[in-house]
Amino acid sequence: MAGVMQKFVLASMIMWLAPMAILYGFNHHIIPGSGQLSSSSQTLLSGFLAVISVNLVIVLYIIMAMKEPANRELQPDPAFLAEAKASINQSAATTSNHDAQSRDKVE
């Protein structure tokens, strides 16, 4: 489970950082050739590349998720099962007591 969370956090961070880096690079003329573009072309190109970078991260995350082993059988949490069984038993006992009291009132 920790590996899944690490992948999710990493993909989320890249999904935020990649577009910001692209936009920063274009606005500060760090990316080669970005200084030669007009202001509107620079804005359009940087926005387009930022959107593409987010979509690429999403695609890579989906590919990583599909490569996860699917043959693991999931086991329920034992503490949850114990609480659920106790709750069912308590509910059944309460219902049978209530039914018995109702019958006594009718008779």
UniProtKB/TrEMBL annotation:
A single GO cellular-component term on record: endoplasmic reticulum membrane
InterPro entries in alphabetical order: Vma21
Keywords per UniProt: Cytoplasmic vesicle, Endoplasmic reticulum, Membrane, Transmembrane, Transmembrane helix
One BP term from GO: vacuolar proton-transporting V-type ATPase complex assembly
Record's keyword annotation contains Membrane: yes
Annotated transmembrane regions: 7-26, 46-64
Pfam families noted in UniProt: VMA21 (PF09446)
Compartment(s) of residence: Endoplasmic reticulum membrane; Endoplasmic reticulum-Golgi intermediate compartment membrane; Cytoplasmic vesicle, COPII-coated vesicle membrane
Topology in membrane: Multi-pass membrane protein
Function: Required for the assembly of the V0 complex of the vacuolar ATPase (V-ATPase) in the endoplasmic reticulum.
Similarity comment: Belongs to the VMA21 family.
Name recorded for this polypeptide: Vacuolar ATPase assembly integral membrane protein VMA21 homolog
Protein source organism: Phoenix dactylifera
Protein's gene: LOC103723335
